[in-house]
Write a structure and sequence with these properties.
Strand content: 25-35%
Shape: globular
Radius of gyration: 21 Å
Number of helices: 11
Distance between the termini: 45 Å
Largest sheet: 5 strands, antiparallel
Strand order of the largest sheet: 5-4-8-7-6
Number of strands: 8
Order of helices and strands: HEEEHEEHHHEHHEEHHHH
């Protein structure tokens, strides 16, 4: 709340008086008066409360015996994974399915980096994928809805359909070491851009083509690109000036 108010004063206001605080979300027209450290004075649990104020998905990673665990969260737009399935899992267990990264020690080093973050520190990273159709909830929990739709689309899609309905999915992720508890708050802001939109910036299109051309098959399969990759590259080459 303090950070939102400081960085976006037109949209948010936060003030403390003694052990009392007042929060204003001007974008949504919501206010809350509460006692610091007393969740009973909020209209719902703290994580749910703040999750309803921001666009990002939230995952709380807490430390136990030198490792991070996904202990709580509010996730509505997962891509290819299930938050109810991973709740309570360790950082290493969550990333177990990622090819190559575990063998190379990437996530061991990533977890060590997160555990060394000082209180208040924030870091940013970007994750990406491609998907047919403009669907934000691409989780395994919602697969019964989006998988048949995607299969029908790919079976009948024209070149124009591919350009307008296949999207680059980018997750802007922030990791913040909370000052009070020492837990790590993981935020995921999801953005979608069609291939037609991507092609309007030739530098972006060229970068995507270069990445897809060099992407190893096991990584492409992990990202669900076995069928999409040739469609994407052909479409971008036709659209890019």
């Amino acid at each position: 709340m303090r950070r939102l108010a400081a960085e976006y004063p037109a949209g948010f206001r936060y003030a403390e008086t003694g052990n009392r605080a007042r929060w204003e979300n001007r974008l949504l027209g919501r206010t809350a008066d509460f006692a610091l450290g007393d969740p009973a004075t909020l209209p719902c649990g703290p994580l749910e409360f703040i999750g309803r104020q921001v666009v990002e998905d939230l995952v709380l990673l807490d430390e136990r015996e030198g490792h991070l665990y996904a202990d709580a969260g509010l996730v509505t737009f997962a891509s290819g994974w299930s938050f109810p399935f991973v709740i309570g899992s360790s950082f290493q267990e969550i990333h177990g399915p990622v090819p190559r990264a575990n063998a190379d020690g990437v996530f061991t080093r990533a977890e060590a980096f997160l555990l060394r973050m000082p209180p208040g520190a924030a870091y940013r990273r970007v994750n990406w994928a491609f998907q047919p159709l403009r669907v934000l909830d691409h989780s395994m929990d919602a697969a019964a809805a989006w998988m048949p739709q995607a299969a029908r689309f790919l079976a009948t899609a024209t070149e124009r359909d591919i350009a307008e309905q296949v999207h680059l999915r980018v997750e802007l992720q922030h990791l913040i070491r909370l000052e009070t508890s020492g837990a790590v708050l993981f935020l995921i802001d999801t953005r979608l851009l069609s291939l037609a939109g991507l092609a309007t910036v030739p530098a972006w299109s060229a970068r995507v083509l270069a990445v897809l051309d060099d992407l190893p098959d096991d990584i492409a399969d992990y990202k669900g690109l076995r069928q999409l990759r040739p469609l994407i590259t052909r479409c971008l080459r036709q659209l890019t000036p």
